[in-house]
Amino acid sequence: MPQASSPQAQFPQGPFPQSTAQQTAWPSGAAATPPVSSPPAPPQSEPQHSNVQMLLLVLGVALVTIAVLAFASFAYGLLGDIGRAVSIGVVGAIALAVGMALTNRLRVTAEGLTWAGLAALSIDAPLVSGIPPVTRTIPNGVCTGVLILLVTALAFGLRAIASHLPSNQTATVTDSQPNTQTIPSNAASSTLPDSAGFSEAHAAEYSTEHPVTQPAMRPVPLSPVPLSPIPLRATTLYAMCAIPLAFMSIASSLPTDNHNVEWVLTVEIGSAAALLFAIFVRVPHTSRYADFEWMTSLTAATVGLTAVTFFGYALIMDADPLWLVIIICLIPPALWAAMLVMLHLKPTARTGSTLPPANRVMPTIGFIWSLSAGSESLLRRVLNGPLGNDQAAQTVADLLMIAITGFAITAATLMFRHTKRFTISKQERVSASVIGSLMMLIVIDSDFTHGSPLPMVVSIVGLVVMLAVTAISWIVAAQPTTTPVAQPAPQSIQQPQQAMPQPAQPQWPQSTLPHGTAPKPLPAEHITVTVFTAITSLTLIYLAVTDPQPYAPMDLFAIMSGATALVIGVRWMQVRPALRSWPALWPALTLLMVPSLLISWFEPLSLPRVLALFAISICALLLGALRGLQAPLVYGTVILVIHVLTVIWPWLAEFSRHYWWVWLLIGGVLLIAAAARYEASMRSMRSIASRISDLR
Fold first, then answer.
1. From CA 371, how far away is CA 141, in angstroms rounded?
2. What is d(CA 489, CA 631) in angstroms, rounded to the nearest whole number?
3. Euclidean distance between CA atoms 595 and 541, whole angstroms
4. For every residue of 322-335, which 3-state class applies, written as one string?
């Protein structure tokens, strides 16, 4: 039975005429004169091809290209340089002309001929540049690059001309009047022309998955509408490869004596050309591969910039002139930033949305690395002459690098999650925290091992920055929760029975999270910065211990890290009443006391270390006793006892050598006293253990 539906058919945009055999008779009572509907805009046609045809064309184009290369390599002895260049140019021009003529008839064949013609003209460009009169006038690389750009402009000009040529492919449209009729799947696939990328196979699949109803078409005269062809893909694909190569060829002819500067600058210019092509290229959205060209160009730009970012700076820092080195060092961060903005703003033609956030990881890493490494290298070279001291110049340059990477990890963990135009993704924040923390770790450790107090300042400043960012991140992540209010129990009419006395139990605060919820996990970027900060602190402690002449004691880095962990632990205990002192404070207490205690066993006695450890252990003991915290009370007591024994052990050993019998006397007196007060002593010990376990 026919089903009611809206007058519009639920198919993608495009003309959908029906054949006469599939039209049904109009029911009685239908309007005599249907309203005339305007025909839709002419769609663009998409070529039909098979795999065999594509294979034959690819092989044919490859053979023609090889033949042209062979002719260019071996035929110059017969025709000369000018004759060889003219012959290849004529072949390329003929191929382009034939391809343009066949665009609207044999589309795939026209693509292959266009490829062959463009390849021939590209091969002809360096041949023309090698002609002696041209070589004496214009540098070889400049001439080759300009000719390739002219070939690219010619290809785009032919593309514009071909898109305005009349087409022999037409679609038929008809006037219609609504009349409910159900369209079966086979009828839908047979009535849809191959237009706008919506082929018969697509229509059949769409109709099978979505059965719809279509208003029946009144049998009126049909009117043909010409289809506008989609431009040849060979043009944009050629431009994608030719434009970067052309600019790289021009850059190779710049007057530079240093080969390292030449290849770095060449790669940067080629990457910039590929990135600009990816930004400004416009491909019809109806094309099946509408996003292929700019995404491939973006990949090529990423590869080139990656090579320059991680391998180029070390090769050009000693080159001259200085102004050229400065320009070369500033190009990569600018290109990485432009790539990030493009990935945030440019949508794909097929989905209408931007690329997934994972594609922005490499630009984020490249931007931070190139900006920090390039700025540090440039500033060190600029200051080396005026300061006359390489250590001073390196210290100032490393402080700049610490500032840049510190801002990167701060922005990744605490800032810039949303802007007016786009949102910073989790992948970008994690990658920024990883690369920023890694570069901080490298600078801090490398400067500490220079054997000079001046670079050590950089290490201390870098560690302070990482500890501050870590502390603020954890404090911000500690969110207070509200305790649910307990409802009073209903009063019973009967007198409740007297309950048996129960032993006293510690009254710990219950979890403050609502029923069925869990604590919010820490963001990945916070965890990343925390891990790198811990690695940096432990590395500095190890270097301070193993360095034969350290300019900073190991205790300094341990106490700095322990103080940071103590602030974090106290804050989390404030906002989480159910959190006990051991899981919150044991890292801080360990860093504050254990490293100093261990080093005092193996090194000569140091009065500042003895006094500092004694003061810290006493403060921890008092804090635990006054605030009712178990961890600092126990930890401080144990460390204080061990530390006192360690300090007075030399005197105890000397005393025992002459008066060993005193220890026997003390032990006997203690045993007699314990035997006399055994029962009271056991009760007192149980009371002390119970009180300690009741502490938080």
1. 30
2. 36
3. 9
4. HHHHHHHHHHHHHH
